[in-house]
Amino acid sequence: MFFTHFNLSDHPFAENPPLERLLCDERFDQALSRLKFFEQNGSLALIIGQTGAGKSSLLRLFNQGLPRNRRRPLYLHLTQISPNALLRMIVTQLGEAPKMGKDRLFSQIVDRVRKNDTQTLLIIDEAHLLPSQALTDLRLLISSGLEPDLPLKIVLCGQEPLIQLLKRSAHADLVGRICVRIRIDPLSKGQTAAYIDHRIRAAGGSDKLFTTEAKQLIHEFSGGVCRHINNVATACLIQGCDKNLRIIDETIVTVTMNEFSMI
Prior knowledge:
Number of strands: 5
């Protein structure tokens, strides 16, 4: 196992590391600042980014920082379902047994949210998979026409197709309620190097493990997408261990990337 070979305490490029191991780079600092404004003042926030760019990590950091005495976060990510199924999931998350009929589901959500001691913050990940009608239903939940001052906030987080979905005229009112819009871009070359170094140090290793040239190549191959960086860097560590090397240089990265060309 490469952990022992490189004197690492555990896997440095795990998909979901402990929160304290996440690197709060400039992207996250700016995003968390905007989400803080939303948490205190808005009703709807939008987060967009390609798969693997770090959206879920951002949501984890945001969720951790919420004051539990004032906010009750509910996280949903199984979104490729019918609009009624989404409402039933929300009701279940609120601790209720879903009733039959959309009107009753709406009433359950409104009644439960209104009776809670804390404000409900609904975080919907993978929102690009939501059907159009589900977005309309969510807009009705935060619409003053249904319930004035309902203590409910919603975060929509998804990939680029969500933008196209929101551009439909039917969702103009929903879009008008978005108070912060956040785009999580891939890492720059410098950010990629800092990301790799941070992950290695967090696992007890040396930030000299990957050479500067190796980190530059990993950035080129991965496009700065965190999940791709994780996969490439892990494969390089396995390759380096197999070859009994102590340093990952550009040669190892190039050889490793030949494996990725299969698919």
